Each structure stands twice: as C-alpha cells, then as structure tokens.
Amino acid sequence: MAKKNLTKAVRDFWYGKPHTAEEGGRRLGELYEDKTGLLKHREWRGVKDTFYYMYNIWGYNYVHMVLDILKYSNNPIDFFKGTWRYRWMGQTYLPVIHWFERGLQGLRGEALYASAWHYRAMVSASIKQICTFFNADTRLHGGKQNDAYRHTIYCNETTCGTLFYPWKDAGYQYVSMEMIPYFVTCHVNSHTVLNYIDAVQSIGLPGDPCPMCQAEAGIFVLDDVPDSSPFIITCNEACDASVSTHTLQDWFANKPLFALPLPMQFDDPLVHKYCMNEIEECWKFIEEQTGTPFDWECMKKYLERQNKLQRDEWEKWEVASKTDYYPITGVAQALFRIYSTQYGVQTECWDEASEKVKKIMYKCVEKKINPFPQTRHRVIAWSCAPLYYSNWCTWAYNCWGLNVIINMDSLMFDMEIRTDSYENMLEDMATYHMWAPMRRMAVGGMHHIFELWDYMKRFNCDMVAMYDQLQCKGMQGVHGLFEDEFRKRNINAFWMPHALPDCRTVSRAEIRRQINDYMTTVMHEEPLDPSLLDFDDSMTW
Amino acid sequence: MKKLKKFLLKFCLIFVLLNVGIFVIFFFDLDGKLLFNVVEPFLKKHYDNMERKDTLAEAYDLDKFPKYKYD
Q1: Of A37, A147, A359, A400, whose CB neighbour count within 10 A is largest?
Q2: Within a domain: A375
Q3: pLDDT by residue (tens digit) across A141-153?
Q4: Nearest chain B CA: its distance from A420 CA (Å)
Q5: Model pTM greater than 0.90?
Q6: Residue boundaries of the structural domains of chain B
Q7: Which residues contact residue A468 at a Cβ distance below 8 angstroms, ignoring those fewer than 6 apart?
C-alpha cells in the first residue's frame, strides 16, 4: 500500500495529478482562497508544465510587458503618469497575469502552450493601444497637442479598425475609445467597470439599458477618457442604447465627430449601397481632418495582411471542426479573434501568435495529441458572452468536460476583403463593417442568429451554450424562438444569464449553478472535478 | 583559477537562490496577493479621491461643428 502511494506521489509530482476524481484527481477548487479567488498556491502541473508555466508564461509575460512598454511608448514616464491618472489603467492592468491564470487553469501540455500565445498577443496589442493613448494625451503633456496627438484617430470600439488602413503608412494610429478603458478591463478586472456604470446612473440614466452602453458613457462622465485625438469616428454599435451613449460622448468629448452607423437590416442591397456611401463619406471626413489623402496602395497592403490572418484562422478552424487536436481553449479562441478583428493588423503580434499556434496545432495533428482529453461534449457558445466571466469555458472543461470549440464572437467576420479593385474592396468593406460585433448574429435578424445550426454542424458540436444577456432587449426578444428550435431539433442547450460587464446582476457562482443544474438534472452526468461545483469567488478580479 | 571557481560558485548560488525566490513568488501567487491586498486598494483610494472635471457643467453645443455631409 505504502509502495503504491509512493509510486502515485512520484507520478503526481512528475506528471501532475490526473484530472478526474476517480483517478484521485487534482481538485482545483481547493486551490482558491475564499471569496477573493486568489490562489492559496498555484496548481502543480507536473515538473515540465509547472516550470514551462513559470518561465515561459508567467515570467515571460511579465518581462515582455515591460519590453512592450519600452517599445511602444515615446517616453516610458508617460506610462506611469497615465497609470496614476486613469482608473481603468491602474486598477485594471496590473493583475493581468492573474487573467492568464483564470483562462489557463488546469490546462496541460499543448493546450497550455498554445492558448498562452493568444493571451500574449492580446496583452501586447493592449499595451500598444495604451501607449498610443498616452503618447498623445494632452492631459499628460501639459495640455500640449503634440505630433502623436495630430496622428491619432479615435474611433468607437465596434468601428472596424480596417477602415483606417489607408492612413497607416502616413504615420496615423487609430485607437478605440472604449476597447481598452472598457472592454478589456472587464475581462482582466471586473471591479473597475462598476465605477463607470454607477457614474452614468448617478446623472439620471435608468439602470435597465445595456450595461455596456452605460459603462462606455460613464467613462466620459467621470472624465476618464484620454484626450489623444483631434476628432472622433463613432457608430451606433449594435443597438439603440448605444446611440444614446454616443450622444453623451459627443457632448463630453466636444470634438469634430463623424457618425458611421451600423445598419440594422443589412441584408438589403439598398442598405448595402447606403453603407458603402457612408464609408466613403467617413474617409472624406478623415481626409478633411488630417489633410492626408486616402492611400489605396496602403489600404491594399494591410488588407492583404488581414486576409492572411483570416486564412490562418480558417486553417485552425478546419482542424477544430474535423479533429480533436485543436489546442486552444474556448476563452483564448474567442477573445483573440474578436480582439484581432476589431483592432486589425496594426501590430504584428497577431500574425506571430497565429504562426506559433499553428506550429503547436500541427504537432498535435501529426502526433495525434488530444489537448483536451477529458472532453465529453463539443460545445458551441452563441450570442454575447459575460465579459466578467469569459473564462467560464476553462471552468466548464475542468469541471464537466465541456469543451467550447467555437463561439459566435469568433465567427462574425468570417470573410476576406477583395483587393483586386477599389469597387470590390468597398463592397466587401461595407459587409465587413455591417457584420460588426453583436450586430450580425446577435441583433442582426433571424437569418443570422439561426446560423447557429449551420455552424454547429460545421464544427461538429453536440451542445450549445446559449448566452442570455439580460439587459439586451434585442436578444431577449428571440429567447423563445431559440427555446422552440432547441426542442424541435432535439439539441442539448443550456442558458447562461449574465449582464455583460456587470458582475453584480448575475454572479459567476450563479452562472456555474445554472450549468451544474443542467448537467446533473438534464444530462445526468457526474462532474470530473467536484471541487469546482461550488465555491465563492464573489470578490475576485 | 581559484578566483574563477569562487566566482562561478557565487554565480551558481545567486542563480539558484534567485530561481527559488521567483518560484516561491510564482507558486504561492504572492504577486497576485500583493496586487489584490495592497496595490489595488491603494490605487482605488487614490482614484476615488481624485479631483475630476464636472463634465455636466459643460454646455452641449450642437452647432459648434459642421454636419460633415459629403453628398
């Protein structure tokens, strides 16, 4: 008996404890401190993976965060000044490595190595955007409008970065006003955004509109948006609540502003034509504001790079859909994709990460390595995800063997943009613009929300994780239709209520409880790791 | 030669101690604990007490800029 125990202890030390309870598993839930979600200690993943994690992920990313600041910042002092000035910066981005931890928990081998590259790319792109803000911010430079200020274009976070490629080689950087102060913060530290939601409600806005729109307006109410560009391109994002947001932004920013709407009924050819005209008007506005003409060759160059990234993604999806060898966890897949498509190819980190991931993926294919060996169900996640709990996918795999293969956020921009002529480019560009986040498959009409069935088949999924954004009036309106279709098609699907960035409305524990209930009462399954069923992380980042 | 040996020994010792130190920080999530319990509350207090512009005091001048129509 003692010999058997010793052998197991040595095996656990060398390889890490096994996943499941039956094998005397690792019980990841016991690693958490109560409420804070901090770790009593990190998981021992075996000698190789623990030290890989320590040196190649944890240490590597700490070092590269500093190097990125030195690389992208005109003056690193500005970075510290910005951290001191802006809550969304200081309060959010310091615990970024803990964000890795939440998304990569329990992963071993190729799944760990590959998913971490997606995180690395997102951190690098975030630092580049933060530096773009701070290099140009008049508040950090004694009110002076420097050269970086004159070469920065502000846009809304759902205005695709692709629109601004023609000015890239003339030295212009575009940066979204909300992606870093709002969107990414919710994933990294969900505490920060609550200040902005409360701020906008404190001036009289009711609490029931989409909390995303509230938070984005709240950043302006608290005067927490850097003053880094002489003008703004904005849009209605996906819904009417955002129109109100942009009225407030127009008021508080007090700058020349061009509104580039995302049409609601975008399948109509006349609307398509209208959208093409709007895009051209936007380009004329930028020409007027910058004094720099549209550069077609520059546009072509960056679009071709973007198309290459899209083809890389299709290559990865091919493996994800047809085999068990795709090494990316659901959260790393979703965030990398939505982030890279919105920010565009302003940075090479997407291409570098994609190449590294492909290399790991083909190793899995060649050597027949299944990076998620405990998969019980291949899941497609549909609609808009809870930003404060985007790492639920990692939890769901560790606890129940639910492997999120693909999600709606990854599929919204499933196209290349033609570069053979200006006319074709403009036509595709309009489509790309209209297929914006939350628009195409969330509030974009019946044809598109029900593309779920096609994608489910394409990615060989047997279960749907249906996000239920309680304050999205558009998606609440189709809840019943989905219920009917799930029954009619006999599809296993569970609903995940949430309030996008606001973790106070539906807690993470409540989301887990809903999934646990479904898995036990409907699927009659036992958890792989029972320690993860119920734990209190109410105060966590 | 003796000096070199001494230097190498010192170097190895520092290297090992440094790695042990880093491992302790990493394994026991000491960076996370420091940020959660000390740095974040400190910064939060700073941001909460920061003087901010009263954005509502600014008039919303709808006609300040042109309509930017290019038909």
Answers
A1: A400
A2: yes
A3: 999 999 999 999 9
A4: 26
A5: yes
A6: 2-47
A7: A383, A475, A479, A495, A496, A497, A498
